[in-house]
Amino acid sequence: MELRFFEIYRSPEYLGIIFDGALTSLGLTIASGVLGFLLAFVLAAVRFWQVPLLNYISAAYIDFIRNTPLIVQLFFIAFGLPLLFGYVWPFWCHALLALTINFSGYFAEILRSGFASTQKGQLEAAAALNLSNKTIFNSIIIPQTLIKMFPSLSSQFIFLFLTTGVISEIGVEDLTHAGLYIDSRTFRSFEVFITLTALYVAFALMLKGILQFIFAKTLGRRVA
Amino acid sequence: MPKGAKNIIVKMEKVNKWFDDFQALCDVDLTIFEGERIVVCGPSGSGKSTLIRCLNGLEAHQSGDISVHGTELRGDAQSVRQVRDNVGMVFQQFNLFPHLTVLENCTLAPINNGKMDAQAAYDKAMTYLKRVQIPEQADKLPGQLSGGQQQRVAIARALCMEPKLMLFDEPTSALDPEMIKEVLDTMVSLAEDGMSMICVTHELNFAKRVAHRIIFMDKGRIVEDQPPADFFKKPKSPRAKLFLEQILSH
Fold this sequence. Notes:
The complex is a heterodimer of chains A (224) and B (250). Chain A has helices spanning 6-9, 12-48, 54-66, 70-85, 91-116, 120-128, 133-163, 175-186, 189-217.
């Protein structure tokens, strides 16, 4: 077989499609990562404080999200719910909503287990110092959880980034969609998908590096 | 009893405490006056830790009365908070907050409990860190200090709340032999300043040196309660005799 990478790399159209696709993938991942994390925080806090009723809703939500395939959640939000509620959104909005919901379930479970694994001695010391529940949560439990769970949160985030390729299935023109499009025009499947693979690796490592940088500049300073 | 002391700081009457079927405290009666220094000793599982943990509400007792500095512990959040305002505690495992600097460990409670503003809390923390002789470590994290230094920070942290009573739960048991002395010295200097203290420890020389009374516990009961000189020379109970023989023979 003859490799013909130039068919892709010399075409401004294809390069543009790849560039736009990459921006869409990264943008949606970061946006839904941030939103999902905030939602997860609320879900996990509600469970930790055993807020009546909301506690159970949160537990059911987390279990539900973590036990259904992302692609089914995506189809449900993109094709199922609009029939019921009659909304018409751009494709990327459906993707953003579905990814946010999906991310939040996984992040919430990590945060919840982090909150719950705060050492007994830490809580006793805090109680003996007469700290309020609010101070204990904000100043002891949250920072210790973020420090302890950073590796899990970070690798979960990277993993979820890699699964975002499925949003191409509902017509979002992401990085995977760009690859599929170029492949369908050129039939250079090997060249296209090796390029895609390399780009996903590069972006995953880049995201990991950014997260580690942020951690090192913030809570990482508080690790002896 | 120290000279001139008349105010009662701790009163326990017929206190009972169970963990499921296991009775940890059994009809405990105990009166401690302000300025008194009490050492609690006894075999493992005799209820020493439970006794002092009941005094700041870390454990709830099931029957009997406990009052600390005039506040009765009734099991409600308010009385527990009121008692904890007056009681400092030092733990076997230090339990410093590892993500906070030494200074932040000391200022967290005074600032958040509305006792003082940041500047006053800082001044107070530095005063007590000097007192335990580690002001130069103020900006380090606990994990960067030795065990002895960490325990001294824990003492300073408790003192920053200006407690009327200090509880020590085996403060030197987790330390290397060389570090025990620096912590005991800190406690001795605290004792010399007239702080009311209850200390669970097996450091009998410390007990001889600073304690007004030694309380010996066995199976949840207070078996002996006498001045160190009497306790070490002529323990009344066979159990205390055996305990002393074993602890002094090695």
